[in-house]
Design goal:
242 residues; Serine Threonine Protein Phosphatase 5, Tetratricopeptide repeat; mainly alpha; 14 helices
Length: 242
């Protein structure tokens, strides 16, 4: 694509076609092809392409073949695209979802203090994504993980959180389970990790019967991605401990 074409605004049919092709590749678990398809539009100002670029960066970052250095670069690119998507259209649920995801992901490189500082912002954007699209099971799942994270926070992290906020972020395992079950209700069996996190959270509560139910579902989930493979492995390990 020439420089003049990159700076010219894209026609709506072109945006739609590019977005549809990205979704097709995403559904087919062709992460690298999706990234290569979308990166041509990296200078776009259109939110529908920008949040998909963020998703593409995340997807490639999840591949077992992606090196640590590559994943770090992709994570910061993910944040940049998500930030631009939100600026382009703050009424797009996906822009809020991927901005929240990006803050969570870069937190892995920024340290515990910054992760805690971003906690309320991350939650607010997941909540807003769900308000804008109550049928997006992934946003609901991710809100559940937010509650789990703060329910499972260690003593040192809790003390650090108390120094950052007068009222630090908090969550309970019950709140996490509520969101994970809600996600399953909205879209049953949509994500292997939702089943794994349900099993893990029930384990934290000491409910081995419910934990076994969801861990067995996770083990039997159709494996299509590297992430699914890891979920099956983790679920099998948890089941051995029951």
């Amino acid at each position: 694509m020439s420089e003049s074409n990159e700076s010219a605004p894209m026609a709506e049919p072109e945006v739609t076609a590019a977005a549809e092709e990205a979704d097709r590749l995403y559904s087919a678990n062709k992460s690298t092809e999706m990234y290569d398809h979308l990166i041509r539009f990296k200078d776009t100002t259109h939110d529908e392409l920008l949040w998909r670029l963020a998703r593409a960066c995340w997807s490639v970052g999840q591949l077992a073949s992606t090196s640590k250095d590559e994943k770090k670069k992709l994570t910061f690119d993910l944040h940049d695209f998500a930030q631009r998507a939100l600026k382009a259209n703050d009424q797009n649920f996906a822009s809020h979802k991927w901005y929240a995801i990006s803050l969570s992901e870069i937190g892995e490189y920024k340290g515990t203090k910054e992760k805690i500082e971003n906690a309320f912002t991350i939650k607010d954007h997941f909540v807003r994504a769900i308000e804008l699209n109550p049928q997006d099971a992934t946003s609901i799942h991710l809100l559940g993980r937010w509650y789990f994270t703060f329910a499972d926070m260690g003593w040192i992290q809790r003390n650090l959180a108390a120094t950052v906020f007068a009222t630090p972020p908090s969550g309970t395992y019950d709140e996490a389970i509520e969101q994970f079950l809600h996600a399953e209700k909205v879209k049953p069996n949509f994500y292997s990790k939702n089943l794994l996190w349900l099993g893990n959270t029930y384990l934290k509560k000491g409910d081995k019967t419910s934990a076994r139910t969801y861990l067995e579902k996770a083990v039997n989930y159709p494996v299509e991605t590297d992430e699914d493979k890891e979920v099956v492995k983790q679920a099998e390990q948890h089941l051995k401990s029951l």
